[in-house]
Amino acid sequence: AVDTIYLNLYNDGRNIMLEIISALTPFLLLGLVAAGLSRLSGVALSMVVVPTLLIWGATAVDVIAFMLLFVVYNNFTMETQDIRLDYKDLVLFPKWRLCIPFILSLVSAFFVPAAGIAVFMACFVLELLATVYKRIPENKRPRLQRVIVASILSAIVTAVGAYIGPKIPSEFYFVCVGLAILIVTDFAWYAGKHRDAFRSAWDSIWAGFNIFLGMFGVEASYYPAALTRSIPNPMDRMLPMVTVVGGYAGLMVVFGFYNIFSIPSLITAIGAAIGIRLFGMYEFPRNGSFSYLAIGFAVAAVICLYLVSPTPVGFDHINTLVSQPIGQ
């Protein structure tokens, strides 16, 4: 009888694991394919991933929670692609100070478990921001004040977007996503044609675009560095990290109001990281013009999204599946 019980538990566990693997494999492949298309054309990963999620039936909350976590992880991957990080070379938490985030997280988690994750991620984001800033040659670094102001703006608009986005009626949400993709793409194309346009408000505009990240998961923070300006803007190098700050703020809003942590997002981020390591990243032409292939892929993604006119069913079944105990 005991052997039969163990055998049943083993079979149940194996079945659940196979079901989890089959449910998450498409997300891994999504990351790989998105990275491949981005390497081919230069299109922002979000402009491939977000329409796909909606076509698969994701709700607004699913998309926002998914993409906020994806952006934080993916921007970290892109920034460290060709660099080997050493704990001795960290800026805020080098050597023994690396223990500080873990201690703070454990203490916070003792009182409020979710706060432990929030504190650890905050330390991670701040360290990443400081490391990238320090790595820029001194004569090309933006003023620290500009980085702080842009980061605060990014955090505010992303958090507001993350709060507003789920409230948009589902029948209009995918339409708004398509419009956001077209707006960002059109702006990048126009800025590539007019190299003096928006000079005084350049970094504020791109930080402000993160409201689309909060509302729809759409972001293209690597576009500014690809658009050669008449006078180079030193903030271009920092805008992906400014977006990470916004992504963290949005994550806290989503977690606080909706208590969602997207496991499929991590799987897609891993797939994208593998793709970036395998294929590399697209190198935009240095003549300042925007990639017409990127425009084509973005427009094609929007057309496919509008043709399908997806009906949201949600990812609740996947979230329940990956969170249930094995052998339940």
What topology emerges from the helices and strands here?
Elements: H1 2-41, H2 46-55, H3 60-79, H4 99-111, H5 113-135, H6 144-164, H7 170-193, H8 202-208, H9 210-216, H10 223-226, H11 239-258, H12 263-279, H13 292-308, H14 316-323
Helix pairs in contact: 1-2, 1-12, 1-13, 2-3, 2-7, 2-13, 3-9, 3-11, 3-12, 4-5, 5-11, 6-8, 6-9, 6-11, 7-13
Cα end-to-end separation: 19 Å
The gyration radius over C-alpha positions equals 21 Å
Largest sheet: none
Which assembly state applies to the chains in this document?
single chain
Q: How many helices does DSSP assign?
A: 14
The parts where pLDDT drops under 50 for at least 5 residues are none
State the order of secondary-structure elements, H for helix, E for strand.
Answer: HHHHHHHHHHHHHH
Q: What structural category do the secondary elements indicate?
A: mainly alpha
Helix share, percent? over 70%
Mean pLDDT: 84
Share in β-strands: under 5%
Taken from the alpha-carbon principal axes, the silhouette is globular
- Give the tally of β-strands: 0
Q: Could you characterize the architecture of this molecule?
A:
The protein has helices spanning 2-41, 46-55, 60-79, 99-111, 113-135, 144-164, 170-193, 202-208, 210-216, 223-226, 239-258, 263-279, 292-308, 316-323. The protein has 328 residues and is mostly helical. α1 crosses α13 (292-308) and α2 packs parallel to α13 (292-308). The chain is globular and about 70 Å long. The model has no long low-confidence stretch (mean pLDDT 84).
